[in-house]
Each structure stands twice: as structure tokens, then as C-alpha cells.
Write a structure and sequence with these properties.
The complex is a heterodimer.
Chain A lengths: L1 H14 L16 E2 L5 H5 L26 E16 L2 E19 L3 E12 L2 E11 L2 E27 L2 E22 L10 E23 L2 E10 L1 E6 L9 E4 L3 E11 L2 E10 L17 E10 L3 E2 L2 E2 L2 E9 L10 E16 L2 E17 L4 E16 L1
Antiparallel strand pairs in A: 1-4, 2-3, 2-20, 3-4, 4-6, 5-6, 6-7, 7-8, 8-9, 8-10, 9-12, 10-11, 12-13, 13-14, 14-17, 15-16, 17-18, 18-19, 19-20
Chain B lengths: L1 H17 L7 E2 L9 E9 H4 E8 L10 E7 L3 E9 L6 E2 L7 E2 L3 E11 L10 E8 L12 E4 L4 E3 L7 E10 L5 E7 H7 L9 E5 L4 E15 L8 E15 L8 E4 L4 E7 L7 E3 L8 E3 L4 E9 L1 E3 L10 E8 L12 E10 L13 E4 L1 H7 L12 E10 L5 E3 L5 E4 L10 E9 L6
Antiparallel strand pairs in B: 2-29, 3-18, 4-5, 4-15, 5-14, 5-16, 6-7, 8-13, 8-15, 9-12, 9-14, 10-11, 15-16, 17-28, 18-26, 19-20, 21-25, 21-29, 22-28, 23-24, 23-26, 26-27
The chains are: A mainly beta, B mainly beta.
């Protein structure tokens, strides 16, 4: 199994930096947040904490305790969006990898995990056409600013189960990633084809430590509570030496508190609700007022019906809704996002502890806007997760 | 179990590959802040970028030119004579229409020198009288000049008469402006003289008698009329081509300190650019007074060497487009700049003769030299000595789309030099900068 696991992890990790832009709003500050959750958690509100059943999301290290077997889970997400800004419309698409997680139980009470997931997406690209006066001539130009990169979280976690009803977990890791910004200008006027193009590349590397702790408690057989706290240090954003015009930046990353609850509403129907608060305002001093972040809330919930089957295999159906604030202002306005979700799962090779393999898919329809800034996006988002475990 | 993991691996890899397409930029006017990229134009004056310039002559011979020039007091100065030497007269002629009957003892009863004229390059005030003489002295087509009939360095022989020593007159003709063919009838005696291979002075000298004319001849042949001995009542035509042809002229262009390009023999001009252009600074675009932008901190989009035409040497005004080619003079240490090998073309522009016609300057011409200047705007490494950059400007003539020659025409253009004040060269730079990139 190990070679296959390694290869699977390598496949996902290798492609993660190539992920495309998620939102034009990522051009503000350090970008837009990404939830390191799988497709199932995505369909149930997107916070990824306090869910019944195995939950490979990185929001709460205590939920590693839900895995009786070693295994791997990974997600891929694609989105298509239409953007409206100042009366202009544009379409764009993006791909990314929100999560890959490797779980490894050691003994009856302890489960170890390694996770790699998104935290902030900083990929976006904008082109604009205009004119530049050069000498006595007005020359048509096309400017493109293209940003590629993001901040991912890489964490080692462990959970310990005091009993089947109570588990705690801790995790430590780093937020890390690179950022490349390419600024270019081409002269599109054929009368000036001797004027060469302009291109300048800026690069940064980013790193910050974090630790988190959480619990998962089932006070009854039909009810589950969970919570986690994540403390992060200072994010050092260091410009490549060759990028003379790029500036370094140090930002205190926010304390994050997440909590959630699930309940079995009927034998086949469960519900989940969760929320996360992030204290981004502590980072405000590092930014211009028009960009400065503020504390954010994310809230989401959903229901999962386990009564459907495909042949003899369970086919859970999920409905969910989520709403979140973005931390960084866009032209002075704090953007918000909402999404409604429809999810399906397919469980293969079920055991008494859960499926040994599953495929989950979630389709979101949502929108983002910073109303005062005149920017709005509508999107379709599709997330697929694969999980595989071995006894 | 193992097979399931293999499947997962393949699915993840395939999905990953499928998910990794690049995204095209979103076109939104106004989303990017103004001034994300600024492009400015800077014009440097000669003292800022030019160390010195120098013009040198003698890079080609008139035989390199693709035409011959006959002129009389053109532009109030230029006299030019054409020297012609035709191939040996044929020993036989064919005298039937099928070409199967050959006569080995033909009698050449006359003929004509037929020249094809470049009417676009020719200047004629009206009908021009031309006279063809036999040359009285031997001459060397590769080295003959107005005063020297042989000038190889090893052998130097003067003409007895400047402009080519004349013997018998062989023929005369009148050229009317616009004619594409010039015909000079010659009699049998002239044909014999032109074909006499035993005479060391074999050849002809074509001169113009009408002042103000400059006629450009692209090619010339000697057409013959022969009477076969086997059929004396028949006249047949034949022809022989040139084996040597050149032109000799006076006065030559004089190095008056200008930047000179063109001519035949060709002039080249060398411009030594200052080494540390990267250290120059210009006012920042749209920034407070006092802000300076160092050129090395900007990206060069274009660099053009602007030259001010100040006319042409007397009589040597170009009558065909002249391409001013910029090259890098490699100038190895110890080699005089005049003998410096030059690189391939790094930039160039075509000068319309109208730009300098009559010596009137109608604005600057611009030679793109972006690649050269880009190198000079890059700061040298700590242990790296920057090689001085010397530009060589060559005058080229395009005879067809694929054949461009230096020394292809007699025309020369003078440009203002570093010491010419307002007419001195300028360097136009188009530079782009991006504002400080911040994530905040």
C-alpha cells in the first residue's frame, strides 16, 4: 500500500501549485480563504467540523479519531464563474486541490494524520486594454497582471480517544507557499510593432507556523459536538532578491475558532451545523485601509439522507448551505460569499465502521460580492473526493 | 486492496492532470489600479550617450556596385566616366534560322553598345549627349580611380589624362530622359578595336557631355552585325558581354566630420556609445519633483538612434533608397576601428532619397538599436568588465528582395555628428516601469 499511497500523495501535491484562480477578489490583500475540506463536508456547510462518520478535513485534529483504518483521501475542485464589474461581464474558470489527507491509526486509541490543504488562494489574472501616450503618439496597450500562488497548510496531527464518545486531538504545521506575480504590457497597435513587450516578474515565499487543538464529544448516540482552536504565528512574506520593486511583509495570522454539531434527526437523516470565527483584525495594521482585514464569520450547515442506494451500495444524498465573510476588503468593502450545495456519495466495501472506499461529489451554486466596490461573481463549483482505506 | 489503491492513484493522477489547465486573464477595464505599468519616452542628447563618432571610407570598390555611373558636372560637382571591356569577338557565327549553319570567317561590319538604364535612379536635365572613346592606356577595373589607372598597392599607375586617357572616339549617342535603353552605334573599325585582345589598352570610356546629368547603367553588351563569308548577302546579329566594367569619378566625398554612410567605395561611420547608460536617470513618470528613475530599473521597449540628415557630398546625393544598417563593431583590442569586423545587422532603416534631396533635411531618421541599448542598460556583474559598444553604420542598397549590398550605389548621406549641435544624434528610448508591488 505504501508505494500507492506515496504516489497518490505525490500526484496531488505536485499539481497543487498549478491550481488556477478561484476569484478575482483574491487580488486583494493575501487572497481569499480556502476550506481544507472534502466534498462531503463541503456539501454539509463547508466548515468541516463535528460531522458524523469519517471526516478527513483539517479543521479539527480530534476528528482523526473517526478512522479505524489507515487510508488516504483527496479532493479536486473546479469552478466556473461569471464576473460583473462596473457594467462589464467576464467568464473564468479555475481548478484547485483543497485537500489531501493521509490517516494512520496506531493502536486502538491513537490516530495519526498528515494533511495538506488550502488556506488562502492568491491566484487571479486580469487584463485591461487602454492607451498610453508615448511622445506625441497615443498607443494601444494591453496590460495583464497575473498572480499565481497561495498559502497552503501542511500539518501533522494526532488524536486520542478516551472513549468511543470522547476524543481530543492536536496538530502542528506550517502555512507555506509561493507567490508569483507577473506584470506585462504588450503594444497592440500594429503601427508600433517595433516596440517590444514589457514583462516583470515578482516572487515571494511565505511561511508561518500554526498549532491547533480540538475535541469531539458524543454526549448521546444521536448527537455530536466538536470544536477546535488554531493559533498561527506571524506570516513572513519575503520577496525574492531579484524582485527589486516587490516589498516584504509580515502579518500576524488570525486565531481561528471552529465549532460544530451534528444530530441524527431520524435513523436515515442527519443534520449538521458549524461555524468558524477568525480574528483577522489583528492583521489590519499591516495593510492599507482599503484592503485592511476584519474578523470574519463563516457559518454553514446541511442534512444528509442515508436511505438511498445504488444497487446494494449506499448512496448518501446531501443538501447544504454556507455563508462566509472574506477577510480582506476590496476597495474598502468586505466581500461575502454564499453557496447552496447538493452532494452525493457512493460507499464501496462497507464495514461495521464505515466504507473502505468512497467517492463523494458536491455541486455548489453560489455568489460573491463586494457591493460597494461594484464587483460581483456568480459561480458553479464542483468538488470530487476520493477516499480509500485498508484494514 | 492493492488493486483499489492502484485505481485511486490513477484516478487522482488523471484528475490532477485534467485540473491543471492555465486560466486566461479576465478582461476588466478599471480593475487594475492606474499606473500598474507606465510607459514613457525619453530622448537622450548626444553628450549623454555618445562618446565619439568617426567616418571611414574605402570599404568596397565601384565594381561592387550593381550599376555604372556616367555623369557630367552633376550637382555642380560630379564627373563620372564608365570604363568598359567586352569579351573577345566570336570566332564563328550561325547564319541560318535553324542555327545549324556555322561560318568560321565572319566579317564584323558594325554594331552598337547597348546599355540598360535605371531610369528611377537617373537624373537628366534633358537629352544627354554621350560619347564612347577607346581607352588609350591599360587599366585595372578593380582598382582604377579618377587619377589612377592601376592602384593595387603593389602597382600604382597614373592616367595620363585624369578621368581616363582617351584615344579614338568610337561612337556617340543621345539619351532622352525616360529611355530604358541607351544605344551607341559603332562601326566595323570600332568593333575591331573593342575586340582586339592583343591591344593592352583594350577597352572603352563612356563620358557624358551634357552638364547636370547622372545616368545609372545596370548592364551593357556589345551587339555585333556580322556578314558570313559563306553567305555574304546576309547580315546576322550576335553579341558579347562585359568582362570588366567600372566607373571612376571625382570628387570623392570628403570627411568633414559628419556621419557618412553609403557611396561606392563605401563609407562607414562608427559611433562609440557610453558604457554605463544604466547609471543615467530621468524624471519619474507622474511622480513628485525630485524623483528620478534610474534607467537600469526600467524595462527597455525600444531604442532608436535618431540621425539628422544634413545633405550629401556634392554630386553624390542618393537617387535610390539607401538602407542605413546598424551593426556592432566588434573592435578587438589592437585592431584599428576602421578595420574592425562587424556583426550581423542589429537594426536598420531605409532612407528615401527625397529625405536628403537637394541637401534639404526633412527631419530625423531613426535606426532601431534596441538590442544593443538593452545590453548597456543592464548593470554589469561585480567582476565583469563591460565591453565598450561601438556601432557601425553601413549604407546598403537593396537590388531585389533578397540581395542587399554595401557599396551598391554612388549616393552618400551625411548626418550630423556628435559635434553638430542641434543636428547631433539623439537616442530615443521607450521604457516601461511598474509601480512598487505590494500585497497590502
Amino acid at each position: 500500500m505504501r508505494p500507492a499511497l506515496s504516489l497518490a500523495a505525490l500526484a496531488v501535491l505536485s499539481f497543487a501549485p498549478a491550481a488556477g484562480a478561484q476569484s478575482i477578489l483574491a487580488s486583494s490583500g493575501l487572497g481569499v480563504p480556502l476550506a481544507p475540506v472534502d466534498a462531503r463536508a463541503h456539501a454539509l456547510g463547508g466548515i468541516g467540523i463535528g460531522l458524523f462518520g469519517p471526516n478527513p478535513s483539517l479543521a479539527n485534529p480530534a476528528e482523526l479519531a473517526g478512522f479505524p483504518y489507515r487510508g488516504v483521501a483527496a479532493s479536486v475542485q473546479s469552478s466556473a464563474r461569471s464576473i460583473d464589474f462596473g457594467g462589464q461581464s467576464a467568464d473564468a474558470g479555475a481548478n484547485r486541490f483543497p485537500l489531501v489527507s493521509v490517516i494512520y491509526p496506531v493502536g486502538a486509541r491513537t490516530v495519526l494524520g498528515i494533511g495538506y490543504g488550502g488556506f488562502l488562494d492568491q491566484s487571479w489574472a486580469v487584463a485591461t486594454d487602454g492607451f498610453e501616450v508615448i511622445g506625441s503618439d497615443s498607443v494601444a496597450v494591453r496590460d495583464i497582471v497575473e498572480s499565481n500562488g497561495g498559502l497552503a497548510q501542511f500539518q501533522f496531527g494526532a488524536s486520542y480517544s478516551f472513549s468511543p464518545a470522547l476524543a481530543v486531538g492536536v496538530a502542528a504545521g506550517v502555512y507555506t507557499g509561493g507567490l508569483t506575480r507577473l506584470v506585462s504590457r504588450s503594444f497592440t497597435d500594429s503601427d508600433f510593432n517595433e516596440i517590444g513587450d514589457f514583462e516583470q516578474r515578482f516572487q515571494w515565499s511565505q511561511r508561518a507556523p500554526f498549532v491547533s487543538a480540538g475535541f469531539r464529544w458524543d454526549p448521546g448516540s444521536i448527537f455530536r459536538l466538536a470544536g477546535s482552536v488554531t493559533w498561527a504565528g506571524t506570516l513572513d512574506v519575503e520577496a525574492d532578491d531579484r524582485s527589486a520593486a516587490a516589498q516584504n511583509l509580515s502579518v500576524d495570522l488570525p486565531l481561528q475558532v471552529a465549532f460544530g454539531a451534528s444530530a441524527a434527526l431520524t435513523p436515515q437523516l442527519t443534520g449538521n451545523i458549524a461555524a468558524r470565527w477568525a480574528g483577522w483584525s489583528r492583521a489590519a495594521d499591516g495593510f492599507d485601509p482599503a484592503v485592511a482585514p476584519d474578523d470574519t464569520w463563516e457559518i454553514g450547515g446541511g442534512i444528509e439522507w442515508g436511505g438511498a442506494t445504488l444497487g446494494s451500495r449506499p448512496l448518501p444524498i446531501r443538501l447544504g448551505y454556507q455563508r462566509r465573510q472574506y477577510p480582506f476588503r476590496v476597495r474598502g468593502e468586505l466581500p461575502t460569499e454564499w453557496a447552496a450545495s447538493l452532494g452525493l456519495g457512493l460507499h464501496l466495501a462497507r464495514t461495521e465502521y464505515g466504507p473502505l472506499a468512497s467517492v463523494d461529489a458536491t455541486l455548489d451554486r453560489g455568489g460573491r460580492e463586494a457591493a460597494g466596490a461594484g464587483i460581483a461573481e456568480d459561480f458553479w463549483r464542483f468538488t470530487v473526493s476520493l477516499s480509500l482505506f485498508g484494514r | 486492496m492493492r488493486s483499489r489503491f492502484r485505481i485511486l492513484t490513477c484516478v487522482l493522477a488523471a484528475t490532477g492532470l485534467a485540473a491543471c489547465g492555465d486560466e486566461d486573464p479576465v478582461g476588466l477595464v478599471g480593475w487594475l489600479p492606474d499606473g500598474a505599468v507606465r510607459t514613457i519616452q525619453v530622448v537622450l542628447e548626444a553628450p549623454e550617450f555618445l562618446a565619439w563618432d568617426s567616418a571611414r571610407a574605402g570599404y568596397t570598390r565601384p565594381t561592387s556596385a550593381q550599376h555604372l555611373v556616367v555623369a557630367e558636372d552633376f550637382g555642380g560637382a560630379l564627373d563620372s566616366h564608365v570604363l568598359l571591356r567586352f569579351a573577345t569577338l566570336p570566332k564563328t557565327v550561325r547564319y541560318d534560322s535553324a542555327g545549324t549553319k556555322i561560318d568560321t570567317l565572319p566579317a564584323f561590319v558594325g554594331g552598337e553598345v547597348v546599355a540598360r538604364v535605371d531610369t528611377a535612379a537617373t537624373r537628366a536635365p534633358g537629352p544627354v549627349t554621350l560619347i564612347l572613346f577607346r581607352t588609350a592606356e591599360d587599366w585595372d577595373a578593380r582598382s582604377a580611380t579618377w587619377t589612377m589607372r592601376v592602384d593595387t598597392g603593389a602597382v600604382d599607375l597614373l592616367w595620363t589624362e585624369d578621368g581616363g586617357t582617351r584615344a579614338e572616339q568610337l561612337g556617340t549617342a543621345s539619351y532622352a530622359p525616360g529611355d530604358t535603353i541607351l544605344r551607341i552605334p559603332v562601326d566595323s573599325q570600332a568593333v575591331a578595336m573593342l575586340g582586339d585582345t592583343l591591344a593592352p589598352s583594350r577597352g572603352a570610356l563612356l563620358v557624358a557631355e551634357t552638364p547636370g546629368a547622372r545616368i545609372h547603367i545596370n548592364s551593357a553588351r556589345l551587339r555585333l552585325r556580322a556578314r558570313p563569308s559563306a553567305k555574304p548577302d546576309t547580315i546576322v546579329d550576335d553579341s558579347v558581354s562585359l568582362v570588366a566594367g567600372t566607373f571612376i569619378y571625382t570628387p570623392n566625398a570628403v570627411n568633414d566630420g559628419s556621419i557618412l554612410v553609403g557611396g561606392s567605395p563605401a563609407w562607414r561611420s562608427f559611433l562609440r556609445l557610453k558604457e554605463r547608460l544604466d547609471t543615467l536617470s530621468v524624471p519619474c513618470p507622474d511622480e513628485p519633483e525630485g524623483c528620478r528613475l534610474r534607467l537600469s530599473d526600467a524595462t527597455l521597449n525600444f531604442a532608436g538612434l535618431q540621425l539628422q540628415p544634413v545633405g550629401a557630398p556634392p554630386g553624390l546625393i542618393p537617387t535610390s533608397p539607401l538602407i542605413v544598417d546598424a551593426r556592432v563593431a566588434l573592435a578587438p583590442e589592437g585592431v584599428p576601428i576602421a578595420r574592425s569586423p562587424v556583426s550581423e545587422r542589429v537594426g536598420g532603416t531605409t532612407v528615401d532619397p527625397a529625405a536628403v534631396d537637394g541637401g534639404a533635411a526633412e527631419g530625423r531618421i531613426e535606426v532601431p538599436i534596441t538590442a544593443v541599448i538593452r545590453g548597456l542598460l543592464t548593470p554589469p556583474g561585480a567582476d565583469e568588465d563591460r565591453q565598450p559598444t561601438t556601432l557601425a553604420l553601413l549604407g546598403m542598397t537593396d537590388f531585389s528582395n533578397s540581395q542587399v549590398f554595401e557599396g551598391g550605389q554612388i549616393g552618400v548621406i551625411s548626418f550630423g555628428s556628435a559635434t553638430s549641435g542641434d543636428a547631433a544624434p539623439r537616442l530615443r528610448l521607450i521604457l516601461s516601469v511598474t509601480s512598487e508591488v505590494r500585497l497590502r
